[in-house]
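Input.
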Amino acid sequence: MKFSSTTPITIPFVFFFFFFFFFKGSLAANVTYDRRSLIIDGQRKLLISASIHYPRSVPGMWPGLVKTAKEGGIDVIESYVFWNGHELSPGKYYFGGRYDLVKFVKIVQQAGMYMILRIGPFVAAEWNYGGVPVWLHYVPGTTFRTNSEPFKYHMQKFMTVIVNLMKQEKLFASQGGPIILAQVENEYGDIERVYGEGGKPYAMWAASMAVSQNIGVPWIMCQQYDAPDPVINTCNSFYCDQFQPNSPNKPKIWTENWPGWFKTFGARDPHRPPEDIAFAVARFFQKGGSVQNYYMYHGGTNFGRTSGGPFITTSYDYEAPIDEYGLPRLPKWGHLKELHRAIKLCEHALLNGEPTNLSLGPSLEADVYTDSSGACAAFLANTDDKNDKTVEFRNVSYQLPAWSVSILPDCKNVVFNTAKVGSHTSKVEMVPENLQPSMASLDQGLERLQWQVFKENAGIWEVADFVKKGLVDHINTTKDTTDYLWYTTSLHVSEDEEFLKKGSSPVLLIESKGHALHVFVNQELQGSASGNGSHFAYNFKGPISLKAGKNDIALLSMTVGLQNAGPFYEWWGAGLTNVKIMGFNNGTLDLSSSSWSYKIGLQGEKLGIYKPDGSAAVNWTSTSEPPKNQPLTWYKAVVDSPAGDEPVGLDMLHMGKGLAWLNGEEIGRYWPRKSSVHDKCVQECDYRGKFFPDKCLTGCGKPTQRWYHVPRSWFKPSGNVLVIFEEKGGDPTKIQFSKRIFSGVCSSIAEDYPLVEHEFPSENGKGDNNVATVLLKCPKNTHISNVKFASFGTPTGTCGSYSKGDCHDPNSSSVVEKVCLGKTECAIELSEENFGKDLCPGITKKLAVEASCS
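Output.
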């Protein structure tokens, strides 16, 4: 509706207008479904959803994340509900800070979007203990996720709390809220049989229990192949085009499309190309899908000790369309936005038309949807993973790149091909900024950054928690109240031992169930060991320094996140199983059954010295030259906030392993552990063919995670207290903040790029003269300051490594500079006026550009 200055507006009309727009959100919606789609208030809906987990970001980021998702063509926000973040102990609930679920759902509602709430409450999700509270494991008689009465009791109790909270706030669509679907359990069908006679009854009980909550919207169960009516079973995979629900009356829903993958400390970086993601999504809708969710669309951060795995990194970036810091990842975000628009142009035909499948040749097919109104939409697919093809469809020839789908909303014109990426690529850098001493410190005349240092003892501090013969399980002892457990003992070494006379060293042998270990003898670090994301157990074998007389052995066992999935996962243990020392005159000394003293956690942890109100609990040593390479050391500095408003990461490249906090907020575990230089990595990923997590790996020989996200909302302008606990030794003077900055932009468009009218001017596509157009866009408050590369012809390479091909217009750079220099965004048409018509006739040319933003 448009208004002009001459449009007469009556008072009743104004009242109706404002009533409609301010109160429509409170009107109840009727959500049902049939075989084709969800039906909301009588209208079929084709929905594109995005996973954004509220605890993996912070409230200050939520509105921006939701806004960026909506701008990317997303209709629905999806999130798990994280049981162990909400029920801290039996009956004690928390819904504040990052766990303010109501606030998050209302932000989604205010954005005019729908919500899928996956209550679970088991989530997996690479989240500690799969989201189930650790305390539940120690409730007598409890076995997780089976026909166990204690488990079912607590599960139903928590789910009822969440459902009632949502009802109280009127957040279900049946009450006028945004929640249109809810999920019970999670990916149970794949492991149900392992639970024997308890599996099937539990799954059916969970479905029945959920339905009995009477929320007024449908329930879903992902990967539950026999989900009972009216619960909808859904698919989780890299590809779900061939998935079919277990009833002809249920719609085809894809709850987890993985656009990237998670990382583990010490492993390589996985990547999923945008062309393949778009191919998978297009195929899903081509084959009758109606709801598709990206897991993750924004992965975020595993703050504190929330990562599971074990060994899942603190970053949960997931190479998602919105990166860990909240910035759109281009070209992935932009390419999928174009895809979403193309699919939406087909919505009416897809949901109301009848499909016809046509074979166009080997590995070639068309799915055509037509309805009685004359609407027609077609998807042309080439599933060959090597060869481009030309097909005839309705007497017209179409070029189909290998492993691609072309979308024709009118059954005539291609508006999008999944293999042709038109979105520009952003160059992102982490720009270092030294820690600046707080202005408060400068007022006291301290011009250099002052550190405060506190050294932990290796072993028992205060008194032992208990003494026991033999080695205990780590997790059963700490109950995950901390990562750390000290195993300590002592032994007497006779002066007659040969290794003392020869100056040699005995060898310590340790076997463990996981996850990591530091070995101390007489307060000195002797070595470390750890498992990895594939093999949690490890063995330690190394020389140790013993002296004549009494020797204190202190073994610091560590968990790095608890198991988060799999059958009976809660029974997986950690900690030491055998300790021996080789090299004594009488042979090997077995300490496994000796008397061991145990201490749970660290002294600094127990005293809360990382919190603003706990800092004075110990005597810190002040210095401008903090000790380096010193294990078991706490470092504290008071610093200013980095200038500007760009997202911030903490650069821990030169530290060893430990935990970090800012102003008492848990940044998380840091560990710049490197992958092996002998691992296999790719220079460029071939999107063609089925994707799997190890297909496109990079980062061989580099730290899996160097930077650790520190949300801007955690900073004060000055007086920020940064606390680091270092386990094995590093150089704190080299700790830096780094700002995540868009430093440049690239784009590469071919003459045959599908010409689409675009709603948003920052996207590539159809220019004013109906020709393919490159659009470059720098972030706000910056402009294109330099054209580093430009070539119209047959350029090769990717952003940051473009090179000229055999065909090149020598005027390319001057054309681009004339249009773009000094502007925040610009458009360069691939027209004859710009590049002439006689250049390299007979071949399809493209324009590739790389520019700097400043």
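Confidence is low (pLDDT under 50) at residues 1-25, 757-767.
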